[in-house]
Amino acid sequence: MIPSKPEHLSYKEKREFIALKNELSQVISGNFSANDINDFREDMAKGLDLMINPYDSYGIAEMLLTMKTALLFAQSVDPDHHILLAIGLYPLLKYGATDIIKIKDKWGEDIAGLLTGLESVDRFSNKNNQVNQENFRGLILSLADDIRVIIIMIVRNLALMRSINNHPDIDWVRSVAFEANFLYAQLAHRLGLYKIKSELEDLSLKYSNREIYTQIAKKLNATKRERDAYIKSFITPLKEKLDRAGLNFEIKGRTKSISSIWNKMKKQKVDLPGIYDLFAIRVIIDTPLEKEKSDCWLAYSILADMYTANPARMRDWITIPKSNGYESLHATVMGPDSKWVEVQFRTKRMDLVAEKGLAAHWRYKGVKSDSTDQWMNNIRDILETAEGGPMQLMKDIKMDVYGKEVFAFTPKGDLFRLPAGASVLDFAFLIHSNVGAHCTGAVINGQHRRISHKISNGDTVEILTSNSQSPKKDWLNIVVSSKARNKIKQTLNEDLLRKADLGKELLARRAKNRKIEFDEAFLMKFIARQGYKHANDFFADMADGKIDPGKFLNSYLEETKPKPDNTKVSAGEYQMHEPENDDRKHEILKIGEKSISGLSYKFAKCCNPIYGDEVFGFIASDGTVKIHRKNCPNATHLSNRYPYRMIKTVWSGIQGDMLPATLKITGKDDIGILANITSVISKEYGVNMRNISVDSNDGMFQGMLVITVSDSKKLSSLIKKLSTVKGVKQIQRV
Fold first, then answer.
1. What is the mean pLDDT of residues 8-22?
2. Under 8 Å CB-to-CB from 15, ≥6 apart: which residues?
3. Alpha-carbon separation of residue 621 from 570, 571, 590, 634 (angstroms)
4. pLDDT surpasses 90 at 726
5. Which one of 195, 232, 303, 313 has the fewest CB atoms closer than 10 angstroms to its CB?
6. pTM exceeds cut of 0.70
């Protein structure tokens, strides 16, 4: 499948590369034609010639990692022809040996699409950037475009984790382990890749807390002989009775993963001997599809006749499978020597799905799983209104991944799956966002219940709605599902913006009647002094009547009343000097060659400079210095005509007031795009929206957005975030 000997690698790495190649060739021998293999060899040979350095910035041999990923995918998930080609071709795309157009022509649209997804992921993935929300959000969105890209990245992450045991950069290793545990292990769990999920969690614990990992591993090794003997004594009589029942089966015994044991030790606050279910027995039955359920329950009944079952630990995922396709019947019984033993019953088909996840489920069913679409939509819902950085994003994903589930019916008999602890309100939002937003309660099993009532397994739920109902802030304390939480937040934000616009309009009308012109920067500062962290909250309260606009204007006028000043100085008479006392230590500008005091300045309205912009000063006829951006449209005219009135001006390094900036936005005129844009702005700390005007034509829109912002860095950050809004084509400052 690949050239026999890549150049530049060490002798040991070359031997490992060849061994991986031979093993992979055996695994995929039935999936690739001779022509495909020859074409692939040629492409790889060209790519290897272009690779001057075979190692990435952390010293990882990329071709070795590619081979490990391909082999691991073929063994642990599926020897899929397109996916394995995409894994192998990606380094060639990355290092410029080929491009997407050539790949599309030679290998087809599907492989080109996979490679585009991997390329997009690579742009955002940054192992040392745990706190960069935009990179993290971009990474997840890239993964969410094609579920196969998610699986490739999960497997690649495991291949990487296996390769960094003795890596010298400990901080980087811990960073990789962090991402593996909090992102890829959770995604693997949700996709049913349980073996990969367990190994990722074990390796993550090993790299982040090697001492605990080693202690548990040593204790498990020390008790292995005793544990194996107990498993044998438990299995032997069970085998005999299952044989007599005429079942065709095999039985496996396994010890639970180290990370799972450590989590139980922490949760139960006991040492290793106190964990009562260190191992599990798995009974895998070979039976036709139509007899799967009956044979599993028959095997369970035989076990229950032999040992006392714990009904509280019974788990039936055969009648209603998990959302990732997992099917199994779990029972915990009191075995010999009064030890609790977990026994799992499943068929060969169920075991394949449990071992290889949704990939096996699709292959067996022949169609894409509906539950996968539901999960992918849920991931996108989390991303739409996520706040608080990547840790919160991870937490929201984790809640939906690991939470136990309850099942409830609509009056028509449709079955819905919810996280444990879900309320009537969660159920309503699961049906539809509008149903959730107008929910007033429910009729459950014939009885009226409040929106906070918890759903139980098997409930029949009829949602009650009213057009006068709308989401409240305290609803966030009622719901547990990320979808409901995010939709409530989104609606509350939209309501706040709507009220804020009404409040701004009310204040503007009153100010116009009294012929008052606002200094926008001072207005924002004055609002902050009223105890408001965000101006939108202030304007919303004004719309609700909590703030009297007339009284507020009186206070504003009092604050802006000019103070008597008997030391007016013209620009011509002004002398530059060092101040005896640094009375202007809080000024945001330094004007002239030295720090000065007594010279007033204003920000020019023609270009609206903000903190961080490259600026210059222009001395007006009244002695005031007008501050312009260096790329101001009037800059050339002023410097040519009045060079003697130009004055050097720089920022002092102390951030100043909120200043206005205007953005021009163009994009597709989609439903809700304006709400999405304003939602992004409302969440941005240190940015307030002042005005927005939009024109649309032939499915496109063009808008002018006026905001107040404290510095150019915040403005640049906002522009980047607005650029990610779906439908936005271009943003520029004007």
1. 78
2. none
3. 8, 7, 20, 17
4. no
5. 232
6. no
